[in-house]
Design brief:
With about 475 residues, this protein is of the alpha/beta class. It has 15 helices and 15 strands. The structure holds NADP nicotinamide-adenine-dinucleotide phosphate. Pfam families: G6PD_C (PF02781), G6PD_N (PF00479).
Length: about 475
């Protein structure tokens, strides 16, 4: 099946932080892919902006190297790459100084969509927003894209929101959580709200529990200094896992439209019960790699793993726990949302026939896809022997796409910015509500000087996290 590509309007996209790691690894390769797919119009322009003084030609060469590093060779046709690179320009600009701003103003066109990607440290967001205005560059319909982390607690997130609000309306601000740009996450909404099959069962009467996992094989690596001030709760739970939880638990929005979807997500965060300390496990990896060797503070109490049991206190979910876990240096990399349905109310088969409860798993990575396990009869004679088999919907197979061409989240999200669609971006109040829920938990750890438990590098996580499930008579899904 050939994918339908709807071209976007002509645009000027300025990437502040255009010489940085995120630009190199994600933003520029994503833009190239959209270009090669025909979504970018002829007169689209991408302007890199950073402090480094260099010519447009030098930056273009650097971008070319980045494409070669992060995209498969077969995608990089010579003519295509040349045509893409011709759309690039560069300006040396200082976010906190005056250099480069008049030149940027002179470059911007009046009659195309304006977007400014703030791919710089959050401490520079305010300076960028202010200068875009004081230099008369950003129009009233310009869009700004801001990266994570969006604050480190409620107070800093509120301050960041207030700073941006001085110069930009909420409708102009695109807060990225790249998990929302993943095909499977959007498919979760398509599955729930585009079929009649699931929604009637999507509640406490039929769902036993939900597991949300984001597991990484790698440690904190070169990010030790940043990570140690953050930890898994701030780095992963407050944003990515919370967003996945919201999309899974939310009520049907009346339309697939930015504020309708975001209103429903916000209600989920506000419905979360405070978590008992006995329902949270914090861990630090030890052994072959050790967290304490990867960070500066030899006595750090920052968690590299977290598992927790949550309750969404509303009619739909009363009695259905949501178990979340995320961690580094685990046995395998994998992200998924798994909905464990209840067993049939009464089994007509013999007790040992093999009847299993249905499980719907939504895999975000690797191999994005959806898998529903259903019970059928084992073929052949020998009575009614039951077996559960997967109804596997691997997108790549089902839709005839090459798996390596499943669009990266950034491709979708950047084009949404250009199209002016905020549905898959976090609204300011959502981010604040998530911090308002997270803050007391983190403050509690601090007040108690809580020490994370150890878990072996390459394991499935701390023993205590297994117990969190076992004591409820449940178990975590295996990390593949
Ligand atoms: P980075 O590699 O350190 O790059 C920072 C960029 O900011 C560079 O292009 C740098 O340009 C520019 N910059 C620094 N000071 C500046 C100033 N005063 N004026 C103008 N430009 C300035 O950082 P990054 O990893 O790309 O991260 C960028 C943002 O994305 C951060 O907010 C980060 O938290 C977020 N993020 C990154 C990742 C990732 O995978 N890298 C993932 C999620 C979120 P010069 O070097 O030329 O000065």
């Amino acid at each position: 099946m050939v994918s339908r590509v709807i071209p976007v309007d002509p645009f000027d996209l300025v990437i502040f932080g255009g010489t940085g790691d995120l630009a190199r690894r994600k933003i520029l390769p994503a833009l190239f892919r959209r270009f090669s797919d025909g979504q970018m119009p002829e007169d689209a322009r991408i302007i890199g902006a950073a402090r480094t003084k260099q010519t447009a030609a030098a930056w273009t060469k650097w971008v070319h190297e980045a494409l070669k590093e992060f995209l498969p060779k077969e995608e990089l046709g010579k003519t295509l790459v040349k045509a893409f690179l011709e759309r690039l320009d560069y300006l040396a600009i200082d976010a906190v100084g005056e250099a480069g701003w008049p030149e940027l103003k002179a470059k911007m066109r009046d009659d195309v969509t304006q977007a400014f990607y703030f791919s710089v440290a959050p401490s520079l967001f305010g300076a960028l927003a202010e200068r875009l205005h004081s230099n008369g560059i950003a129009r009233a319909d310009a869009r700004i894209v801001v990266e994570k982390p969006f604050g480190r607690d409620l107070a800093s997130a509120q301050a960041l929101n207030a700073t941006l609000a001085e110069h930009f309306a909420e409708t102009q601000i695109y807060r990225i959580d790249h998990y929302l740009g993943k095909e499977t996450v959007q498919n979760l909404m398509a599955i729930r709200f585009g079929n009649v099959l699931f929604e009637p069962l999507w509640n406490a009467q039929y769902v036993d529990h939900v597991q949300i996992t984001v597991a990484e094989e790698v440690g904190v690596g070169g990010r030790g200094a940043y990570y140690d001030k953050s930890g898994a709760m701030r780095d992963m739970v407050q944003n990515h896992l919370m967003q996945l939880l919201c999309l899974t638990a939310m009520e049907p929005p009346n339309r697939f439209e930015p504020n309708a979807v975001r209103d429903e997500k916000l209600k989920v965060i506000r419905a979360l019960d405070p978590v008992a300390s006995t329902d949270i496990v914090r861990g630090q990896y030890v052994g072959k790699s050790s967290y304490l060797d990867d960070v500066e503070d030899p006595a750090s109490r920052t968690e590299s793993y977290i598992a927790m049991k949550l309750h969404v206190a509303n009619w739909r979910w009363n009695g259905t726990p949501f178990y979340l876990r995320t961690g580094k240096c685990l046995k395998a990399r994998g992200s998924e949302i798994v909905v464990h349905f209840k067993e049939t109310p009464h089994s007509i088969f013999e007790e040992d026939a093999g009847n299993k409860a249905n499980v719907l798993s939504i895999r975000l990575q690797p191999n994005e896809g959806i898998d529903l396990r259903v019970t059928i009869k084992e073929p052949g004679p020998g009575g009614m022997r039951l077996v559960d088999v997967p109804l596997d919907m691997s997108f790549a197979d089902a839709l005839g796409h090459d798996a390596s061409h499943v669009p990266d989240a950034y491709e979708r999200l950047i084009m949404d910015v250009i199209r002016g669609d905020q549905t898959l971006f976090m609204r300011g109040d959502e981010v604040e509500a998530a911090w308002a829920w997270t803050d007391p938990i983190i403050e509690g750890w601090k007040a108690r000087n809580d020490k994370p438990v150890d878990y072996e590098t390459g394991s499935t996580g701390p023993e205590e996290a297994l117990m969190l499930m076992h004591r409820d008579g449940r178990r975590w899904r295996d990390l593949a």
